[in-house]
Amino acid sequence: MKIALITILVALGLSVNAQEKKINPNYDEALAKKLGAEDNGMKIYVLVMLKTGSNTTETKAKSDSLFAGHMANISRLVSINKLIVAGPLAKNDKNYRGIFILNTKSLEEAKELLATDPAVKAKLLDADLFNWYGSAALAAYLTVEDKVWKARL
Predict the structure, then answer these.
(1) Measured distance CA(105)–CA(95) in Å, rounded
(2) Alpha-carbon distance 139 to 124, whole Å?
(3) Domain range spanning residue 125?
(4) Using the 8-state DSSP alphabet, how is residue 92 labeled?
(5) Own/partner long-range contacts of 74-79 (Cβ < 8 Å, ≥24 apart)
(6) In this structure, is residue 16 part of a structural domain?
(7) Which residue would you say has higher pLDDT here, 148 or 48?
(8) In a domain, 2, yes or no
(9) What is the rounded average pLDDT of the residues 119-131?
(10) Residues forming beta bridges with residue 45, ordered by sequence position
(11) Which residues contact 50 (CB under 8 A, 6 or more apart)?
(12) Which CATH number does the domain housing residue 133 bear?
């Protein structure tokens, strides 16, 4: 009986200790609020997996034009704080071409944002969308992104 009681008390003590919150001495409430962070510094985004679309018959000139529009749309979405991360993927057997992390938790809004992309509209690209839980600080890298590249095509 004594051993069972001691075991229960130890387990309860461990449970309480495991639930204690660590307070961040560097916490910036204004920044957390601006970035939409929850108390743990995280938030919901939409992860977009771009993949090869069903339209495989466009001419090279038309495809090049649509992908130029795709790149311009990426810049536009960044400028309105809706696109946090974008980038291509290496060749793979799933036909995934790239990713977006959109600054919205709404899959419907994400679909509306994707509808503004010329390559998606023309079905050169298709997309799988997922809610994704990540650091709210992810958007902060955009403030320095333009300072780290030396040359681009």
Answers:
(1) 25
(2) 28
(3) 38-139
(4) -
(5) 76/116, 77/102, 77/113, 77/116, 78/142
(6) no
(7) 48
(8) no
(9) 97
(10) 132
(11) 96, 97, 98, 99, 100, 120, 125, 126, 127
(12) 3.30.70.1060
In this predicted structure, what is the pLDDT of residue 17? 53
Q: Cα–Cα–Cα angle for 147, 87, 94, nearest 5°? A: 165
Query: How much of the chain exceeds pLDDT 90, in percent?
Result: 72
Among 35-44, 112-121, 129-138, 140-149, name the one with the lowest average pLDDT.
140-149
Helix, strand or coil, per DSSP, at residue 144: helix
Cα 127 from chain centroid (whole Å): 14
- Measured CA to CA, the distance from residue 62 to residue 73 in angstroms comes to 16
| pLDDT bracket for residue 61 (50, 70, 90) | very high
Is there a domain that residue 11 lies in?
no
In the chain, how many domains are there? 1
The DSSP annotation for 99-151 comes to: EEEES-S-HHHHHHHHTT-HHHHTTSEEEEEEEEEEEGGGGGGHHHHTTS-S-
Beta carbons within 8 Å of 112's beta carbon, 6+ residues apart: none
The pLDDT tens digits for 6-23 are: 555 455 555 555 568 888
Amino acid at 95: N
Please answer whether residues 69 and 118 qualify as being in contact, where contact means their C-beta atoms are separated by less than 8 angstroms: yes
Asked if the model's pLDDT at residue 5 lies above 50, the reply is: no
Both tokens of 147, joined, read: 């300072």
